[in-house]
Amino acid sequence: MMDPDKSLYLRLGGYDAIAAFADDLLRRLRSDPQLGVYWKGMGTEKMKRHCQLLVDFLSHAAGGPVQYSGMDMRMSHAGMGITEDEWDVFVRITIATLDDLGVPAREKADFLACAGGLKGDIVDVPRAGAHSA
After folding, report:
1. Which CATH number is 29's domain given?
2. Of 5, 6, 129, 133, whose Cβ has the fewest other Cβ atoms within 10 Å?
């Protein structure tokens, strides 16, 4: 049984587990027909750098001893026009990845809560019809 006082980083399995999650997640996102466009044309080296930034960000956000040197989420997603529907697809893919990796329910819920807190910095475009009169 995991110690409930441990950081989410440790409860997820540390750096290697987060790196495995990031690799799997990015592979799924890149191959998704709706979201893959955001990585279209990204070369191998840029993709490696992107994955490393994701690993560092997730590790840091989960309380791990990792420095994140990238842009904040608002700045790194500014102008991309990410929609509510795309966010929903991202969440579904994230949940499937966590499930396939066997992440326990508590850690999955904590991870998703952490990710959910970033939604306002990532989504640019409200759901269609959200502002209808």
Report:
1. 1.10.490.10
2. 133
